[in-house]
Each structure stands twice: as C-alpha cells, then as structure tokens.
User: Fold this.
Amino acid sequence: MVPFSKRALVTGAFTLVLSVPAGGAFAMPALSDDGSSDGPQVRVSNSQTLADLAQSMRGEAFASASYRLYAKQARREGLPSVGRLFERTADVELGEHFKEEAALSGLVGSDAANLRDAVSGETYESQKMYPGFAQQARADGDSAAATRFSEIARDEGVHRGEFSTALHVVESGQGSVPAPSKVEEPTQVPAGPPKVQAQRTKANLDTAMHGEALAYAKYRLYAEHAENPAVARLFRGNAQVERREHFADEAKLAGLVGTTRSNLTKAISGERYESRTMYPTFAKRAKEAGDTGAATRFSHNAKDEARHAQAFQKALDRLS
Ligand SMILES: [Fe+2]
Ligand SMILES: [Fe+2]
Ligand SMILES: [Fe+2]
Ligand SMILES: [Fe+2]
Assistant:
C-alpha cells in the first residue's frame, strides 16, 4: 500500500478527517484518525474535490436547517403551501444532496470512527469556539449573545462527555452508552430583526449556525448507519439539540428569519448562486481532476438547485 498522510478538512466546527496518499492523489482505502481501518471510504481522489465536497455539505446542511425555519414562518403567515415547498426542499438538500456528497467524501465510518469525529467536533466547540465567541460578544456589548454562547459551550461539553463515554463503551465492550441530551422546548424563530449589534458577533453567529447545521446533518447520518442501537439513539437525540435549540437560538439572535417574502428572496439568491456558480465550478474542477462520480453529482445538484430557484420564484410571484 502507498504511504498515507493525514489530511484534515475543517468544515465549520467539525473536522472531516480524511486520509490521502502522500503526494495528494488517490485515497483508497481511507484510514480513520487513529490509523485503524474502520474509517470512511473516500470515493474521490483529488484534495480540491474533497474541499469542494466539504463546502457543499456545509451549504446543504445550512440551507436545509434554514428552510425548516422558513417553513414554520410561512405557516405562521397562513401560507401552508409555501411551508410545504420549503419542507420538501429541505428534505432534498439533506436527504439527497448532503447524503450523496457525504458518501462521496467518505464521511461515515464505523461507530467508533463516527464517535471520535463527534468528540473532536464537540471538544473544539465547547473548549475553543464558543468560549471565544462569548468573550468577543461580551467585549462588543452583545451580552445576550455572550450569555447564549456560554450556555451552548456548556451543552457541547455535555455532548462531548456523552460521546466520549459511548466511544469507550464501543471500544471496550463494557458499560452502557448514555441516553442523549433532551430538547426541553424547541425554540420558535418568528420573523424578526437581528438582536445583536456588532459585525463580529454577526459573523460568529453565521459560523456557529453553519457548525450546528452540519453537526445535525452528520449526527443524523451517523445514527442512520449506527451498528449499535444505543449509539444511534445518542446521535439522533443530540442531533435534535443541535438543530432545534442551538441552531434555532442562534438564528433568532441573528435575525435569520424574515417575512416569507424576504425568506423566498433570500432562498432564490442562494439557489441561483449554487446552480449557476458554485456547483458548475465544482463539477468542472472534479471532471478535470478525474473525479467523475463527484462531477456527475455536482452537475446533478446544479440542475436541482435551478429547479428550487424556479419553484421559489413561482411562490414569490404568487404572493405579489
Ligand atoms: Fe442542494
Ligand atoms: Fe453538540
Ligand atoms: Fe450545538
Ligand atoms: Fe436547493
């Protein structure tokens, strides 16, 4: 076997640990972060393709989580058909686009490899990212955001402990996997302006929301593929906390949700960017690199996103 070197692709707060050969091409089979062979099977060869997949997954996870909130807002405004359109689109982003890209990039490994990834993401969030964001928000006078960042840091610390214990159980065959954290009350996010002032807090909220949406999407997938039912429950339960509490709380602070008219406008511009610029660029690069599976997927997504933009545009026209 050719010698492998480790390459970590940071996707928001979480790291996709991928192994590519020294020299940068052909990564089959992939090794997990401890060098064992239970890691993901990467199905692309080029490091740029891997980076493009990571960026796409971040975008897909974020779009899906945002559309769920836009759907609820549409229903609040008495527009159930627009609500359904946002929900259906959210399902495509997560259940098809994110999932297929995750398969290409070899996101899912064994339970142990997935738990190690979760521990590493939760460690970063609880010990570095959120404490840093809280400190900056406090310095910038955004005290509500500072308080929430600190509380979320503590939640992530709890997740870290739960995933670490689960990892120990899976590896040693002893003890029991903890029950997941619970969503006490999902945060409602009605249309509203940002509740923070500083540009830096806004940028940090954007980073945090992308991290939460990605964590949700990953944990759902890890749960789906889990060999151990208790590990599946832990991933599924904590995924809910990431989306329905953390992502939602941050969306509220950031003023992510507007009126349905403005949510549709924002969605159209995101879909157009993906369909006209992002995915065609990624498809071209992947094709040139010989990653034909990824190139086909990127081109397919570009067409889907164009259809999403059209459907949203139609819904917007009907509101006028
Ligand atoms: Fe998509
Ligand atoms: Fe977490
Ligand atoms: Fe979280
Ligand atoms: Fe889309």
Summary: The radius of gyration is 20 Å. Residues 152, 156, 212, 215, 242, 246 surround fe (ii) ion (ligand 3) (CB under 6 Å).
